[in-house]
Amino acid sequence: AVGRINAFSEEAVNALASRALNQQPQKTSDGFTLVTPPGQLDGSVMGYRINPNDPWANGKDTVTVVYRVPARAWAAIGFSDNGGQMVGSEAVIALPDSGQVLKYNLNAKSPQGVNPMPEYQQTLIESGISQDATTTTMAFTKIMVEPGEIPILAGQNTFLGAWGSSNTLGIHSNRQPFGLDLTTGLFVDVINGNGGGVPPPAQQEPPAQVDNNLAAVNQDGFTAVNLQGQLQGSTLQFRVNLNDANAGGEDTVTVVYTIPQVAWCAIAVSDNGGFMIGSEAIIALPDTGEVLKYNLDAKSVPGVVPMPENQQTLIDASVTQDGVSTTLTFTKLMVEDGEIPISNGANTFLGAWGSANTLGIHAIRDSFEIDLSSGGINSDLQVRKQAFWKAHGLFAGIAWGLLSPLAISASVLRKLFKDGPLWFKIHRGLNMCVVLFTVAAFLLAVIAINLETPEGASPNHFSRESTSKHRLIGLVIFIIAFIQALLGIFRPHVPDAGEKKPLKRYLWELAHKGLGYICLGLAVFQVQSGIQIYQTIFAGSGEFLHIVFWTVFACMAGGVLLGLITIQIRTERGDVMPVPTKAAHFDDEEAS
Predict the structure, then answer these.
(1) pTM of the model
(2) I need a labelling partner for 379 at 20 to 30 A (CA). Which of 25, 145, 198, 302 fits?
(3) Measured on CA atoms in the order 432, 434, 435, 440, is the torsion positive or negative?
(4) What is the 8-class DSSP label of residue 363?
(5) What DSSP string runs through 392-450?
């Protein structure tokens, strides 16, 4: 930041960096009020100061905001007049790599719907962004009331805080609306219509950001950690209760698991290295309020089976939701007959949640190790074999996103080749490469699934319920590719000039071309769905694969279209004559 924001006092900066989380506002000597936004924004701190009749804004009232988040990532403060909903709000977003701090309209939840306001609305005064090893700080001064924008009042307002998982603007990893009275510095329940001017209800000590596998312990004895990897944005709090009087003197563990989604959620215990199949889970279904213990017998929903009634021994189990998150709470006996034990030491857990309140295929799932005695956590279990899936995607993408379209293009544009046999040799060679690459991709997928399946369980290689039928469609493409290879080897000869085309040759051409186009269409869908699955399983990976794939595909489609236009123009000018039958369907056995 520059100018007055540079004068944001050292006292305030130090307070932002190191003060303990506190629901009560704090004042600095230069008039800034420091507050700690609640919920998903735990760990962030906002400082603000109202500047009445600001001479830097031609006498208009302004507010200076400094917002520090506990991550090296883009950050944002939004302004809402719709109860804290993202869509329809406005935000100031800071992008560290470019140094830009601009005003945006939030028109949709996707990054494509987050649009900078027009140039004439970019009226921020003294904006800036900085980063250190663990935090990002954005600062700006904004006119409080501007035409066509959501006003900021000297009293109660609804704000949104957010930050991402990297410096590039994308889906937020943390986001939360909060009501704040700028006059008193107190959080208010503006979102639910209660402007009582009191801080939010006291909660158990907010979880601290996990750093070097350390966790925070609050005054109630709960250890709190922010889970990483696929579970980033969720928090786990636990407390071991030795000789628990509520469980007949048995040892228990109390778990509070909060996810950044309005959906079913689950915590599972594993004794097989973090694999889903063979583990046992506590699953919360918000619509019914049920929190039960389940056996995870398969990856499909029918294989997720509630334990018998006599094993439903959870104590004080519940599930609650607010507008943006779901919290699962339960107390469980640590050692129970016929179940995976939980030790007061190292354990392997799985966290998961869905995309809706109804139990279905999880949207997010990951495994992690945690030591219940120390709070030490290891999120890098590598249950999913990313290297194999990366290689699988590379072979499949090259085969069907590049080589197959080029092979078909060589046939479609054969009239551009002066040497008749050349197009056929290119077509045949590329298709052979397609088959080889498809075999490699297929084998890599089979190996990866086998490695990811615990011993004794079925890998369900081609289940129709697995990852949106991606596996089953992959098998269909694999089979068609082999059929095409066989059709190429056993193709009927081309008829001589003037000779009627035999029925066998006609049927062969129909099958070869038809299967080729069908297979290409399925493969385009398959590559697209594969990219989506990869990005879901391995968060933060392959962010631009969709763009690369469709750019290459569009360029090749444009090239074919240009080639066809060229052929048409040359034919009309007499530069290119229709190729004789024998050359048009060149067969290498007849080359001379």
Answers:
(1) 0.42
(2) 302
(3) positive
(4) S
(5) HHHHHHHIIIIIHHHHHHHHHTGGG-SSHHHHHHHHHHHHHHHHHHHHHHHHHHHHHHH
